């Protein structure tokens, strides 16, 4: 009788000498673990995995710092005291302005640092694990904040932002990868996208601080926002010290008993049988990917069917920028350029962050449980493209005093749609779609695709908006509306559905080169002898 794929793979599994189970039982338990994943409802998962959820929330909280700081500089450009300290008086606008080159340089310094920090993280996590890498990054972050806090000029400020970007790149790529490796399938999209919520929380905190300090006429109006960044490491470092590393990482290192203990720490009163099933599923999936010739280096991300997974992860993340985020999200500088007052500008900034938070909650409650990732992303990208084009069209009505406010309101609507779709899934999908052996590196490459795209957008956006440069104002919506439409077309043809798919199923779907539009309906049993192509 022909052996099943499960048994064939199990014979190659690196079982410990003291393992009591027979090889075929290991394979059977791996299949039982996969079935348990499919049968687990979100509410039941909440009861079974409270510890894992807690650790995901804490690890992801590191990203609050990046969300907080990315909101700082873009809003500081319209901040009177900051512009007076680091800018020059502009006779054309009758106020202080940073030049477009310095806006571009400062705005992209942290992105450049994040780019290299992200690449470094792919190596560090493989060797040291997620927890130790995060702890080291928190310590480095505390030191680098001193530079931006005491920066006497734009050059020192740029260096400080560049160095701060290194740990931010690590935080942003570790958080979703960690969540995807400690949670069951039914919860992973919520906690991988929770990283995005942490960005929003950071942005909301910064917007609130800005609104409170905008009328402060001393240097502390911009020093206090920088100093707040010291709060997060003090709180998070001693907590994360006790966090368990992921069982997937430990299995890849061949430390199976430690992986089992990690699973125990992540669950609420698990039985030995449940732990063994989950452990064997992880071992089985890792072994399956080895048989599919999936390595662990960055170069392996561009080999065979992994190239398709890397393309999708990178495009989904870069789609956040291509959807118009530099223009329409937290666009206080745009509000100022279309004639709104400083008070209106910063109140709308707070409203925009509140809208982002509301959109995220709506996405979790009404979108993610009922709609596929592909459907949500495609419709969201198409809607954002339409909104941006409308903003550009409104700019033609130059004699209408209400146009500026109408455009500002539309950016809030854009923000809501962004958080329903690309804002959430840009974080979740790279962590889901990469193979387990290359997950961290796939997330890192996707994040760097976002960073590179963001650098280009960050260089161009000040020129689009600055009154001393191209001064496009609302016409900028046509530019980003066009890039959003291109991303919409790409997603329709290339983005597959990953909802309700376990990792070993996704491995085989990609190995078989199943078309993106058939992922949701394609029937597969990853444990059958004909599962491999």
UniProtKB/TrEMBL annotation:
<keyword id="KW-1133">Transmembrane helix</keyword>
<dbReference type="InterPro" id="IPR036259">
    <property type="entry name" value="MFS_trans_sf"/>
</dbReference>
<dbReference type="GO" id="GO:0005351">
    <property type="term" value="F:carbohydrate:proton symporter activity"/>
</dbReference>
<dbReference type="Pfam" id="PF00083">
    <property type="entry name" value="Sugar_tr"/>
</dbReference>
<dbReference type="InterPro" id="IPR020846">
    <property type="entry name" value="MFS_dom"/>
</dbReference>
<keyword id="KW-0812">Transmembrane</keyword>
<dbReference type="GO" id="GO:0016020">
    <property type="term" value="C:membrane"/>
</dbReference>
<feature type="domain" description="Major facilitator superfamily (MFS) profile">
    <location>
        <begin position="55"/>
        <end position="499"/>
    </location>
</feature>
<feature type="transmembrane region" description="Helical">
    <location>
        <begin position="312"/>
        <end position="329"/>
    </location>
</feature>
<dbReference type="InterPro" id="IPR050360">
    <property type="entry name" value="MFS_Sugar_Transporters"/>
</dbReference>
<dbReference type="InterPro" id="IPR005829">
    <property type="entry name" value="Sugar_transporter_CS"/>
</dbReference>
<feature type="transmembrane region" description="Helical">
    <location>
        <begin position="157"/>
        <end position="179"/>
    </location>
</feature>
<keyword id="KW-0472">Membrane</keyword>
<feature type="transmembrane region" description="Helical">
    <location>
        <begin position="477"/>
        <end position="493"/>
    </location>
</feature>
<feature type="transmembrane region" description="Helical">
    <location>
        <begin position="408"/>
        <end position="429"/>
    </location>
</feature>
<dbReference type="InterPro" id="IPR005828">
    <property type="entry name" value="MFS_sugar_transport-like"/>
</dbReference>
<feature type="transmembrane region" description="Helical">
    <location>
        <begin position="133"/>
        <end position="151"/>
    </location>
</feature>
<feature type="transmembrane region" description="Helical">
    <location>
        <begin position="449"/>
        <end position="465"/>
    </location>
</feature>
<feature type="transmembrane region" description="Helical">
    <location>
        <begin position="378"/>
        <end position="396"/>
    </location>
</feature>
<protein>
    <recommendedName>
        <fullName>Major facilitator superfamily (MFS) profile domain-containing protein</fullName>
    </recommendedName>
</protein>
<keyword id="KW-0813">Transport</keyword>
<feature type="transmembrane region" description="Helical">
    <location>
        <begin position="191"/>
        <end position="214"/>
    </location>
</feature>
<feature type="transmembrane region" description="Helical">
    <location>
        <begin position="349"/>
        <end position="371"/>
    </location>
</feature>
<comment type="similarity">
    <text>Belongs to the major facilitator superfamily. Sugar transporter (TC 2.A.1.1) family.</text>
</comment>
<dbReference type="InterPro" id="IPR003663">
    <property type="entry name" value="Sugar/inositol_transpt"/>
</dbReference>
């Amino acid at each position: 009788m022909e052996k099943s794929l499960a048994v064939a793979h199990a014979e190659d599994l690196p079982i410990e000498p003291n393992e009591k189970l027979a090889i075929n039982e290991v394979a059977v338990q791996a299949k039982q673990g996969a079935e348990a994943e499919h049968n687990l409802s979100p509410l039941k998962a909440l009861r079974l995995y409270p510890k894992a959820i807690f650790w995901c929330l804490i690890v992801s909280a590191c990203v609050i710092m990046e969300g907080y700081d990315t909101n700082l500089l873009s809003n500081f450009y319209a901040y009177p005291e900051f512009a007076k300290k680091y800018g020059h008086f502009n006779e054309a606008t009758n106020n202080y302005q940073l030049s477009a080159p310095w806006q571009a340089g400062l705005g992209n310094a942290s992105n450049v640092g994040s780019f290299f920090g992200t690449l470094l993280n792919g190596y560090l996590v493989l060797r040291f694990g997620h927890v130790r890498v995060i702890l080291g990054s928190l310590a480095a972050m505390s030191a680098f904040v001193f530079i931006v806090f005491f920066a006497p000029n734009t050059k020192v400020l740029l260096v400080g932002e560049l160095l701060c970007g290194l740990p931010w790149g690590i935080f942003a790529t570790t958080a979703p990868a960690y969540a995807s490796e400690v949670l069951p399938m039914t919860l992973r999209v919520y906690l991988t996208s929770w990283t995005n919520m942490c960005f929003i929380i950071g942005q909301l905190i910064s917007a609130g601080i800005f609104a409170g300090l905008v009328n402060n006429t001393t240097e502390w109006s911009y020093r206090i926002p920088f100093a707040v960044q010291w709060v997060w490491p003090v709180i998070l470092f001693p907590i994360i010290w006790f966090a368990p590393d992921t069982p997937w990482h430990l299995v890849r290192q061949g430390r199976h008993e430690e992986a089992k203990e990690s699973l125990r720490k992540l669950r609420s009163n698990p039985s030995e049988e449940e732990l063994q099933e989950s452990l064997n599923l992880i071992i089985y999936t890792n072994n399956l990917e080895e048989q599919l010739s999936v390595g662990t280096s960055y170069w392996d991300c561009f080999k065979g069917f992994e190239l398709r997974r890397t393309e999708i992860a990178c495009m989904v993340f870069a789609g956040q920028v291509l959807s118009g985020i530099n223009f329409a999200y937290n666009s206080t500088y745009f509000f100022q350029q279309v004639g709104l007052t400083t008070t209106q500008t910063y109140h709308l900034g707070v409203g925009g962050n509140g809208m982002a938070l509301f959109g995220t909650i709506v996405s979790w409650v009404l979108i993610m449980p009922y709609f596929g990732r592909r459907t949500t992303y495609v419709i969201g990208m198409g809607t954002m493209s339409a909104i941006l084009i409308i903003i550009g069209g409104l700019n033609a009505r130059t004699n209408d005093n209400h146009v500026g406010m109408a455009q500002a309101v539309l950016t809030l609507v854009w923000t809501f749609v962004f958080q329903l779709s690309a804002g959430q899934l840009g974080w979740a999908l790279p962590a889901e779609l990469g193979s387990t052996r290359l997950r961290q590196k796939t997330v890192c490459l996707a994040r760097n695709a976002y960073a590179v795209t963001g650098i280009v957008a960050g260089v161009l956006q000040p020129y689009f908006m600055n009154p001393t440069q191209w001064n496009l104002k609302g016409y900028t919506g046509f530019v980003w509306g066009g890039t959003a439409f291109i991303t919409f077309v790409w997603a329709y043809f290339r983005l597959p559905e990953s909802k309700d798919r376990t990792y070993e199923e996704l491995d085989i779907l990609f190995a078989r080169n199943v078309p993106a539009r058939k992922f949701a309906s394609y029937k597969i049993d990853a444990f059958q002898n004909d599962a491999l192509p």
